[in-house]
Amino acid sequence: MKHWTLDDIPWDRFDPSLVDPELLRIIKAASLVEFNGGDYAAYLCNVFDDDDSFQGAARSWAVEEVQHGTVLARWAALADPSFDFDKSFARFKEGFSIPVSATHSIRGSRAGELVARCIVETGTSSYYTALMEAAKEPVLREICRNIAADELRHYKLFYSHLRRYVESEKIGRLRRVLVALSRITESEDDELAYAYYSANGDASIPYDRRHWANHYARRAYGFYQRHHIERAIAMVLKAAGLSPQGWLNHGLTSAAAWFMGWRVQRLSRAGF
Q1: CA dihedral of 180, 150, 66, 164, whole degrees rounded to 10
Q2: What is the pLDDT of residue 1?
Q3: Is the distance from CB of 176 to CB of 239 less than 8 angstroms?
Q4: CA-based Rg of the chain, rounded to a whole angstrom?
Q5: Cβ contact 26:215 at 8 Å
Q6: Which in 11, 21, 163, 219 has the greatest CB count within 10 A?
Q7: How far apart are CA 239 and CA 143, in angstroms?
């Protein structure tokens, strides 16, 4: 099936009166992260240097990720004509980088790398679904709908390759769970925080990771509802080799929903 393009987006329906300033800030940050997909593809191709099938899939995936960044940047510029994507992306690249020259996975194995990729796609799929449902501006809703569908398909792509490597590398459930937990905790690492700073912060003020991570989390977490979290937990459990439904999903969903709500309230009271 033909993949959507920027020309498929109904740009003529853009309504500036329906732009949510909070959404705009995190969309700007998301455009930088998505546009950086080429570096991730280079890293993955180095890690899977003898797997032509996966390398082809990774390169195609990166093309779609870069397109996500392009379409988000175009919408952000409509919503805020002062937004300079090129300048913001240059700041982002200057302050954040991934190990593109690495020849072995930082996760310890190829299967571990694919578990981590599934976790990332879980997060983005649920994230853009939450943003789509929260947005009132019609063009942004359509963009997020398309990206969320892509990210779900990307999860399935990485999961299909994960199944191959689980068999060949004999990685156990415990190791998959540990990798999944490790990648989840990285959701508040420098990548998202620095992207938010690069897109929204004053360049004359030095970067402070905790400060900008809090700014990002207060906004991003606030758009999640329980059904987004429940679906994400199911996808995480599946990638970790556990049953995606049942008591474990219910318990983890309740815990995550409580934590995210508590975090948003605490950060709001702190002025973030």
Answers
A1: 50
A2: 62
A3: yes
A4: 18
A5: no
A6: 219
A7: 27
Residue 98, sorted as left (phi over 0), alpha (psi -120 to 50) or beta, turns out to be beta
Half-sphere exposure of 265 (CA within 13 A, CB side): 6
**What pLDDT sits at residue 6?**
96
Q: Where are the alpha helices (DSSP H) in the chain?
A: 21-35, 37-47, 52-79, 85-95, 110-134, 138-169, 173-185, 190-200, 209-220, 226-239, 247-269
pLDDT at 2 (0 to 100) = 75
Q: Is the pTM of this model over 0.85?
A: yes
* CA pair distance 94, 111, nearest whole angstrom: 30
Token pair, residue 225, equals: 């509802």
- Give the residue carrying structure tokens 């679906």: 231
SS3 243: coil
- In this prediction, residue 185 carries a pLDDT of 84
pLDDT, position 229? 96
Residue ranges of the chain whose pLDDT lies below 70: 1, 188
Which tokens go with 138? Answer: 């019609």
Residue 31 in contact with residue 59, Cβ under 8 Å?
no
Q: pLDDT per residue over 48-58, tens digit each?
A: 999 999 999 99
